[in-house]
Specification:
It is a single chain. By secondary structure, this protein is of the alpha+beta class. It contains 5 helices and 8 strands; from the N terminus they run E-E-H-H-H-E-E-E-H-E-H-E-E. A 5-stranded antiparallel beta sheet has the order 1-2-3-4-5, sandwiched between helices. It has a 3-stranded antiparallel beta sheet with strand order 6-8-7, with helices on one face. A hairpin with a 5-residue loop joins strand 3 and strand 4.
């Protein structure tokens, strides 16, 4: 799998994570202020040695060109601002049922610049262009910044749910194809 862009925005290129991005990935995902909002059991990376396998998993999850966990590279600096995701949501048994999640994980130095909204807008457009009718966002309660991104995206609040991610409680948002 190459570093060919999956999509671009005015300021960002969404592309596959590369092993050359390992230092930036570690600097992002080793920070509790980022990791605390992610997944069923949040955990900050403890060692740079964890990063190559993580990048390999992300690249595998990006094998189907409709979905992925993509690096967001800033066009002006070449620095990776973080990740944008468009991935199948697992249901209770972990198999998934065709429902798709959009999300964003940004390095703190990239917060407050509109990158999450810009990247997620493009990810939603990609998903809808690829035939999706609905796309979900899961926001951990208390993550006011991500909830605000969902509102800026025009997503509809669906209330709290424990449906995905091993029964962990999230605030659910829904975008429907225009």
């Amino acid at each position: 799998m190459s570093a060919t862009p999956s999509f671009t925005t005015e300021r960002l290129t969404a592309r596959l994570w590369q092993h050359a991005d390992a230092e930036r990935a570690f600097d992002t995902y080793a920070r509790w202020e980022v990791a605390r909002w992610l997944g069923a059991a949040p955990r900050a990376l403890e060692s740079p040695a964890e990063v190559p396998a993580m990048i390999d998993r992300w690249r595998q999850r990006s094998a189907d060109p409709r979905y992925g966990i993509w690096a967001l590279e800033r066009k002006d600096t070449g620095v990776v601002a973080g990740s944008v995701i468009l991935i199948p949501l697992p249901d209770e048994d972990g198999t998934g049922n065709g429902e798709i999640e959009v999300g964003w994980h940004l390095h703190p130095d990239s917060w407050g610049h509109g990158f999450a909204t810009e990247a997620a807008t493009a990810a939603l457009a990609k998903g809808f262009a690829d035939g999706l009718a609905e796309i979900h966002a899961m926001v951990r309660p208390g993550n006011d910044r991500s909830a605000a991104v969902c509102r800026r995206l025009g997503m509809t609040p669906q209330g709290r749910t424990t449906r995905w991610y091993g029964g962990t409680e999230f605030d659910a948002f829904l975008a429907t194809r225009p």
